[in-house]
Amino acid sequence: MRIGVARVSTRDQNPEAQEDALRAAGCEKVFTDKASGKLARRPELDKALMVAREGDQIVITKLDRLGRSLKNLIELSEELRSRDIGLVVLDQGIDTATPAGRLFFQIIGAIAEFEHSLMSDRTIEGLEAARARGRTGGQKPKLKARQIKLAQEMYDELGSDGKRRYTVQQIADEFGVSRPTIYRHLSKED
């Protein structure tokens, strides 16, 4: 049996292209993780590994969809090999059932980790260069100083019954932001 494993790195990425490719490759079951970062949990991959039996194949679209580091890829490859489960990587034409496929898998894994390391280094260098020019990262503030002051005034305003006149949700709705945004700014004012 062919078992497909897909992964998207962020919540807003769409896994449908991967899932379609895996089904087209003959996968009877497809497991999709939405995970980000090296240490992110992969519950769907875990399920796929539990379902897989001797003689089955785990199929992925790209090598980086399986693991985030060469060490992780090699560990998974070793686990699959010890259980006599094949690994097929569609985009790179890798099939670990063959010696050439196993060698190619390790070479591609090393290159992928090297590329990731270079990208991380470039990102760090870019952030340092931006800081040196006085720029900081992150989102622009959702509320301006005047809006924060108004939100605080609304929060502090009491009704005739002695209770707060506006709930945090009402204040958030007024400014078009979330409640945590209002709470974050209110805590700065205290």
From TrEMBL:
CDD domains: HTH_Hin_like (cd00569), SR_ResInv (cd03768)
DNA-binding region boundaries: 167-186
Domain annotation HTH tetR-type: ranges: 141-190
Gene Ontology BP annotations: DNA integration
SMART domains found in the cross-reference section: Resolvase
Statement: the UniProt record of this protein carries the keyword DNA-binding: yes
UniProt-annotated catalytic positions: 9 (o-(5'-phospho-dna)-serine intermediate)
Highest taxon listed in the record's lineage: Bacteria
Residue ranges constituting the Resolvase/invertase-type recombinase catalytic domain according to the UniProt record: 1-134
GO molecular function: DNA binding; DNA strand exchange activity
Record keywords, A-Z: DNA integration, DNA recombination, DNA-binding
A Pfam family the protein falls into: Resolvase
Cited SUPFAM superfamilies: Homeodomain-like (SSF46689), Resolvase-like (SSF53041)
Protein family per UniProt: Belongs to the site-specific recombinase resolvase family.
Protein name: Resolvase
Organism listed in the record: Streptomyces nanshensis
Organismal lineage: Bacteria, Bacillati, Actinomycetota, Actinomycetes, Kitasatosporales
